[in-house]
C-alpha cells in the first residue's frame, strides 16, 4: 500500500481487513469483493458473463444481480456464447417466465444478440483473440488511485471508446458507465480505495 492515512469510506472488519462501505456489511458482497471483484478475467466465456450481468444490473443494485447469478447461469447455459447465440423465440419466452432472473425483454434480447456478436468477433482481423482481446485493448496507461468513494470515476475516456467500439460491432447495453463497471470488475482498472486490503492485488497494477 502507498498510503497509511485511513479513508473515511473504509471499514476495518473483525478480521482486521479494510474494505469499502459497500463491501463491508453484506456477506455476499464482502465475499465477492474479497475473492473476485477486480481480479483479471481474460477468457471469452468469463468476460461474456460479466458483460451480460453488468447489462442486466443497469438500474438495479449489484447485490440483486449477485443473488440471482446462479439462476442466471442456469438460464443462460453458463453464459457459453455459442449456446446463448443459438437461443430462439422459445428461449426468450422461457427466460421471460423465469422468476429467478431479471425478466426484462430488452436485456434478454440484448444478451442473445451480444452472444452472437461475441461469436462473430472470433478471428477478427483487428482482434484475433475475440472479445477478450478487444476489451483488454482498452486498458489505460494508468489506473485511478481513489482515496474515497467520491473519487471513484463512473466512466473514463477508455470506457467511452470501448462502448463505442462494442456498439459498432452490434453489442447493446454497453454504455460508458456500464463498461467502466466491467473494466473495474475484470481488473482492467483498479479502483480499490487506497488503504483497502485489495488495492493492487490483481497483479495488473501496483498498489
From TrEMBL:
SUPFAM superfamilies: DNA-glycosylase. Gene3D superfamilies: Hypothetical protein, domain 2. Pfam families: Adenine_glyco (PF03352). InterPro entries: Adenine_glyco, DNA-3mA_glycosylase, DNA_glycosylase. It comes from the Bacteria. PANTHER family: DNA-3-METHYLADENINE GLYCOSYLASE 1, DNA-3-METHYLADENINE GLYCOSYLASE I. This is DNA-3-methyladenine glycosylase I. It comes from Microbacterium marinilacus.
